[in-house]
Design goal:
single chain; alpha/beta; Spore Coat Polysaccharide Biosynthesis Protein SpsA, Chain A; nine-stranded mixed β-sheet; two-stranded antiparallel ribbon; 9 helices; 11 strands; 32% helix; 23% strand; globular
Amino acid sequence: MFRIVIPARYESTRFPGKPLALIDGRPMIVCVYERARATRAHEVIVATDDERIAAAARLAGADVCMTASSHASGTDRIAEVARERGFGTDDIVVNLQGDEPRMPAALVEQAAAALAAHPAASIATVAAPVRSREEYLDPNVVKVVTDREGRALYFSRAPIPHDRDGDGHEARRHIGLYAWRTRALLRFAALAPTRLELLEKLEQLRALEHGMEVRVVEAAELPGADINTPEDLARLHGPGA
């Protein structure tokens, strides 16, 4: 069994009010909630600090947990929910970001199943092959390398592994979907940001720097684009979308 928490905040540097932006006539937060409900999660919670987002989510039938406005990340927000709702230490919690209206239910279930299958792991996440040299070199595409058993070795915005003689065709891009064990989630949220995390601007490096095992599985299918800016939303609605 697993549960899903969807962190959503109104304030966003690049796209204020993003969770309420309309997709096919429905607020984005509702689209994400419906994706979550398409999984076999036994509970789905929307975590927000904004009453407008909460109202839209409740209208769609969502369970809403109001959280502090001071959280630096969605991970901190779901950690507050875990504490507030008294999740069990071994419970599996999937962090489904509120700007992922095209995330396949199959990937959410993959991440949860991967964590359940590896009791020593703290976190499970998903990766997919890099599709082009442009993607390989793009710092906005986070790459991941693992050991032979699927444990993450490193995440980077740099083109890794460095393909000295080729074009990076063996690289994998990280898909930002995380399944957590509650005890690991609460431990992580209590830790200060680490050196590599601050250098790369990648929160998951904090887990690796503290010795947490992160399992990475190959995506069964590719997600649609996440929405970070108004331009991303326009592309979603554009010709051929």
